[in-house]
Predict the structure.
Amino acid sequence: MKYMGSKRAMLTNGLGTLISKEVNNYARFVDLFSGASFVSWFVAENNQIPVLAIDLQKYSTTLAGAVISRTQAFDSSALVESWITKSAKKRNSSKLWKKSRELSKHGSDIASYVHESRELCSIKSKIGPIWNAYGGHYFSPEQALTFDYLLENLPTNEEERILCLAACISSASECVASPGHTAQPFQPTVGAGKFILESWGKDPLARCKINLEFLSGKHAFVKGDTITDDAQNILNQLRPTDLVFIDPPYSGVQYSRFYHVLETIARNTKSVNVDGVGRYPALTERPQSKFSNKGQSFAALKELLVGIANQGSTIIFTFPSDETSNGLSGDLVIDIASEWFNVQNNTSIHGNFSTLGGNNDNRDARKKSSELILLFKPR
Ligand SMILES: C[S@@+](CC[C@H](N)C(=O)[O-])C[C@H]1O[C@@H](n2cnc3c(N)ncnc32)[C@H](O)[C@@H]1O
């Protein structure tokens, strides 16, 4: 899964080595901003300590929990039959599926295919939230209905359910017709129409099977846990024996604006009200982070570091060295942390980093920058 600010690449470029060197000295690893959970998975799969993954968004903690809350690989072959095949059978006998299939035999006119898809997906469905909210926009009618049947038929057993839900989240991020994330769907213009057809041509069932098999094969050594909340609210649970990983947002735009489609899947309520071209749920339904608000980010960072210092935990912190769009910078992080911590590692990784929300019309979507990997030990 592609994720803004993901540390997947950095794990093989300095971060993984530092974590592996440090982690043996601690009783627990706490990933305070777990995102696509690559770091949580990495630690849980390779070390004999539990991982606690925290994020504001439920899709993130679902992805983390699907791996770190299990201590054995799972044989997913039975689930393919009892979940994916069963969902497909129910879907295939529905009226909306037949209409969606007919519509997909469209001519070469992408604009009318998209327009008619939006019309079709305005028919009320009680199956799940995706059809009415995102069908004809982020997903084809066939894809939207498929996701709804997959969500409706999730297993009831908690271990199986979280695996299947995580497989849906990963698959949706692979199928979605939008550039890299889910802030705006592609529109059927001369330039972007082909991207809609490419995305809408992807089969959610096949993707879910692949993602289910991938996730089922992964597991922790020691059972971990997840919390969906503001990192600030769990600081009193931290201990001196914790190694805390901090990879906060560096964008002035909220993650919940970019990933609302995945959040809708993770929450899996029967329906969701959406608005505008981006099909956003109401602001009250989209978690807001002080770290993505330029006016609040400095105070939030300081509060976080003081809170962790009070608990006596050690921190590995990653952040771009230069100023980012939320007004923070790696140098500022070092300045603030130095008051309570000894800075014991300060490595700079050079690369092309996403500007998170930039696009090629106004500013470069990726720009050359360097990102710091910092180790803060309490004084
Ligand atoms: C840079 S991403 C983390 C990427 C992650 N390390 C990875 O490798 O995939 C930042 C994450 O912080 C989360 N977030 C933002 N504010 C938060 C807060 N106050 N508490 C917890 N999580 C927060 C966002 O939802 C986002 O997933």
